[in-house]
Amino acid sequence: MTRLRIGTRGSSLALWQANHIAGRLAQLHGVETEIIRIRTSGDRLQSAPVAQINEQIGSESGMKGIFIKEIEDALLANTVDLAVHSMKDVPTETPDGLAFAAITRREDPRDCLISRTGRTLTGLRQGARVGTSSLRRQAQIRHHRPDLEAVDLRGNVDTRLKKLDTGDYDAIVLAMAGVNRLGAASRVSQILNADVMLPAVGQGALGIETRSADRTASDMVASLDDAETHACVTAERALLHELQGGCQVPLGAWARLVAGELHMEAAVFSIDGNEFVRREQQCSAADPAGAGKRLGQILIEAGADRILRLAGRVVGS
What we know:
The chain is α/β, with parallel strands linked by helices.
């Protein structure tokens, strides 16, 4: 019987995701799996500045590369057979010899607010401390509530919730998908719709990465692919690639199929939230990568590249 080794981070959410995929593979193919935990740079250096982490791992992709590099190294070294990633953590460039054999059906891609008092974003007291490590989230919080204090917060979901409960923050912002997967939806004070906070590229979707030459693993994994999610995430990642953005750039995007057509909206914000460019388009779903690239070009023509350059200087300073 085929036995597949699944590489994953060791957080509660990452293990849930890996075990979910293991269960699907067992159900569809009767395959045995082994979960192998791999500690990434992002896990080891949770209090270090992004620039310092990038220097240590040789990455120029911002926060994105730090949560998957060691797992991809394990794939290339043949110590695991497949890897399960949150697609929002995945850089737009995939190493030679690796490929995403499947992107599974997307969970809710939106962000959510969890506050200690149950208040929504508009109901938070003036000057309240809102924790999130994402500049995308911080910029959109500042855009809607410039009186709030957007404070850096790193760590896995459990760690962030503990820091909220101990009073370090008045509220935190998390991905709704992770909250749902961990069974913590009852804690949500507000789901932040796209008009308030556009999600990260790929948020809510799981990608399964394999070695391109390993046809056994790739063919099994391919049965888990969701065509609609794959198309939408492909469009979002093409937009990200066109804008040369990453997790440490205030860029939000969301693609979805509406009546058979690809509807896509995206925005780039200045870090203080005062300035932004937002555009949307609806087009054929036949070429999702082309659709994402075109929307990226539309944003650039509207001035998004200037905002991104300014954001990059602030992040690097």
